[in-house]
Amino acid sequence: MGETPKPIDEIPAHVCRNLVGLLFDIDDTFTRDGKIHACAFEAIWRAHAYGLKVVPVTGRPAGWADHIARMWPVDGVVAENGGLYFALDEGSGRMIRRFHEPDEDVRSRNLKRLWEIYAEVKEAFPGVEPASDQAYRVFDVAVDFCEDVARPLSLTDAGKIKEIFESHGACAKVSSIHVNAWFGDFDKLSMCRTFLADRFGVDLDNHRDRYVFCGDSPNDEPMFRFFPNAAAVAGLERYVERGLIDHLPAFIASDPGSEGFAEIVGAILEKRR
């Protein structure tokens, strides 16, 4: 599992001065209680002003990615847990879209298989529902276990839902609100590699120490494992206690959600001076 994360204010100044990019999860990392607090949105504007590449890396759908890439101070968006990225070309105003699986027929067949598995999940856990943003998804089925459902389920039950999908050969990850399931050899990290190579010519494997990732939950684990300076907002221990995450980040904030995210960005920018 690795060492216990250090407080974010212990991140070394030389690390902060060397950074070129800020990658971050959205739900319960950038947000808190379902809202983007002012401190978090101000933090990405500050990071943008400091010249950092700013990239949300989320389980949210393609429909959200289009809006975020257009409206937020970001260089692109990796969405659906790595199924795609969108980036707005500032010069032409054209949206650049890349999908892990470009063939719509293949994506449709995969979604059909996922819905068949979902029927089994629904039988085992009648209270779950598809995520409210399911209509805007391209790759995955997102099972809502605690965002908009009448009777939220526990993280233990979310883990069991994940296991049902995996028993049928699907990939599945537990986030703070959904269980996301998909077919395809991708995750958040693989599409970050593709995005940075396509847009900036960066070989991420040779520059992992120049990017920081901020997250909060098990679907961020590939990023925690890869980035030596990854950070989490407070609250990660609830996943550790339930055995839902094995690899921890190097640093952690004292606050959860938006405030924790702002704390992480603030510590980094202060030490860049």
Can you walk me through this structure?
The strands form 3 sheets. Strands 1-13-12-11-2-3 form a 6-stranded parallel sheet, with helices on one face. It has a 4-stranded antiparallel sheet with strand order 7-8-10-9, with helices on one face. Strand 2, helix 2 (38-49) and strand 3 (53-56) form a beta-alpha-beta unit. It is α/β, with parallel strands linked by helices. The chain has 2 domains: 6-100 and 186-272, Rossmann fold; 104-182, Hypothetical Protein Ta0175, Chain: A, domain 2, CATH 3.90.1070. The protein has 9 helices and 13 strands. Helix 2 packs parallel to helix 9 (257-272). The protein has helices at 13-18, 38-49, 62-71, 104-124, 155-167, 188-200, 221-226, 237-241, 257-272, and strands at residues 6-7, 21-24, 53-56, 77-79, 84-89, 94-99, 129-130, 141-144, 171-174, 178-182, 211-215, 231-232, 251-252.
Comma- or semicolon-separated keywords:
273 residues, alpha/beta, Rossmann fold, Hypothetical Protein Ta0175, Chain: A, domain 2, 2 domains, six-stranded parallel β-sheet, 9 helices, 13 strands, 37% helix, globular
Total count of strands? 13
Name the CATH superfamily classification of the largest domain: HAD superfamily/HAD-like
Individual helix count: 9
| Alpha-carbon distance between the two ends | 33 Å
Tell me the strand percentage band: 15-25%
The ordered H/E elements are: EHEHEHEEEHEEHEEHEHEHEH
Question: How is the quaternary structure best described?
Answer: single chain
The low-confidence runs, each spanning 5 or more residues with pLDDT under 50, are none
Top CATH class of the largest domain: Alpha Beta
Radius of gyration: 18 Å
